[in-house]
Structure formats: structure tokens, C-alpha cells
Amino acid sequence: MLALNLSIIIDPDIRKAQTLPSSYYTDPGKFSEIKLRFRRYWHFAAHKNQLLEKSAIELKHLENLIGEPMMMTDEDEIRCISNVCTHRGMLVVNDYCSKTSLQCPYHGRTFSLDGSMRAMPEFEEVEDFPTKKDDLRGFPVLNWKGLIFSGMNPSGIESSLEEMERRVGWIPVEEFEYDETRDRSYDIKANWALYVDNYLEGFHIPFVHKDLNRELDYDNYQTELFDGGVLQIGIANEGETTFDIPEESPDYGLDVAAYYYWIFPGLMLNFYPWGLSVNLVVPLSVGSTRIIYRGFVWDKRMLGKGAGGDLDKVESEDQDIVEATQRGVSSQTYDRGRYSPKKEEGLHHFHRMLTS
After folding, report:
1. Distance separating the N- and C-terminal Cα atoms of the chain
2. Is residue 314 a part of any domain in this protein?
3. 88 lies in which domain range?
4. How far apart (Å, rounded) are the C-alpha atoms in residues 19 and 22?
5. Is residue 139 in a domain?
6. Do residues 96 and 229 share a domain?
7. Is residue 12, in this structure, part of any structural domain at all?
8. pLDDT per position as a tens digit, 201-258
9. How many Cβ atoms are within 10 Å of 11's Cβ, its own excluded?
10. Count of structural domains, the chain
């Protein structure tokens, strides 16, 4: 494994700090070092309701994130298991499966939904077969209100889930319906960290998102830092669509249009009155990133309204900005900038996490 060489220091005092050096966005070696770290973290796998009428779904984005083909299955419990047949390494499930067992399409090896091997043709004379090595490997699973997380040897998401439970635990996320029509996948010509940078500040909203700016009260836009992530709260302008927040919430009485959660390194959970939009930031190369959207609907009457009303337009505007910024940070004349202490606390927090 490559030795990490991420020695740049981001001053903890945002008033004194400089932003990331441009090499973090342009150096292929540094990209590879950072990408290796993704195996240490929990990643969003799916919402449990993506498995309705299916017994297994392929988790292609996790393969791109951590280099491991995986699938999620549901029988007596939800599991994340290897999608690699233990015979010759063929992928077992392509996209999804609706059967009560899993069969490799190459030579017919069959597995239970818990990953245990059940049958294999033409293996009658094989000695000491089967063993545990012939089962599909299982991976750790965390379930927060129907949102399933997994990874290779993950750690570090528990404090983020505790923060979300405290703040938005009243929202019945486990009941949200998966809406496949809201699925999106975009490949953009920019480093993944630039996309995260852009997400973590509302500073650009009046300049880039004219329609969204009419929905949100820019002067009262809030950013809160927590161990492992950032919460941004979009306060609505008068008369715009908001949550009906219960008294037990710490935000009772506020006109909240959106809760924007980012969890390190690249998960974005955007809660709107209509439901949840999940953004997955998947690094492909130093200058290429895949952005995956998944949508889960709570209240259909709220679709098309408020801060989450036209996500395609907001995404297009963000992509244009981020791709242009990638060209800019690749310039010989740029290396580092400075932070706005009022508007870029989330960006500063991310950079300190990335370089620690």
C-alpha cells in the first residue's frame, strides 16, 4: 500500500488559514493516496425500500468507491455481501435479482441470500468441499432509519448518525418510497473534492443559483460543524415551502426549507419537505467524478416545490461552476486562497479532515 504523504497543514483558525493547495485537485499521485483512504469509511449502500420486490441489488457505486464488488440482500435481515463468485470470480448479480437464491451465471454455483454456498454442478469428486471459503464474504452493515451503510473495514460514522438522530430523527425516513424516476448519474470533468467544496458553502447561491436564492433566506443560511461532517440549514424566505417541524425538534419555530447533511468523505443527504435526495460523490480519476442521485419520497404533494423543487437545474449550475473551477485550479498562476470566516466554515472543516 502507498504511504500517505498528505502533510499540508490547514490552520485551525479559519481567519488565518489558507485553502487546499491546487495539487489536491490536480496531482494524480495525491489523488491515489486519498482514494485509498475511502476503504476506511462507512459508505451509503441503499435505502431498504430499494429492495422492495427484489431479493438482491448490485451496489456498483461501492465498487467504484472502495474497489470491491458488493450486493445488498434481504431475507430474514438486510446484508451486504460479496458479489464475486467463489468459483472463478464471476460477478453473481448484474443489477438486481428477484429470486430466493443467487446463481452465478457463469457455471451455476448457487448461494443462499445470506451468502452461504448451496450447490455446485460437476463438483461431486472434489475433496474437502465445500468449506467456509466457498461462501460469499459478508461485510459490516449499519442501518439508520432504513438507510443502509457498509464498507470493507469501516469506522467513524456513528457520531454523524447520532447528530442526524438528534436533529432530524423525527422524520420517518424508513417509510420513504424509493422513486426510480429521480435516479440520476452525471460524469463531470472535475476533481471530487471540488464538488464537495462547492456543496459545503451557501456563499455561491446568490451568484450561481438565482431561482434557489429566491427560495432561501441567504442572510440566515446556517452552517453547523460536527465530528465527521457538516450540516447546512436553508431557511426559507417568507411564503416559501417549509417543514412542519414538531415541538420536540431543536428547530421548532424555524422556517426550514432544507437540511443539507454532508458526511465525510462524499455522502450528501438532502432532506426536503417532499423527502430525501441522496447525492453520492464517486471519484473516478484526478479530474473526473461521478455524481449519483437517489430519490426517496415522503410527501408527493410537496414535489416540485421549495428549495428541492428543481434539483436538475441546481445540479447543472453546480456542474458548470465546478468544471470551470477545475480548469482554474490547474492554472500555473493559482495555488491557494483564503476562507470567508462567515460563509466557508464547512469548507474549512472538510479541508482539515482531508489533510489530517
Report:
1. 18
2. yes
3. 43-144
4. 9
5. yes
6. no
7. no
8. 999 999 999 999 999 999 999 999 999 999 999 999 999 999 999 999 999 999 999 9
9. 12
10. 2
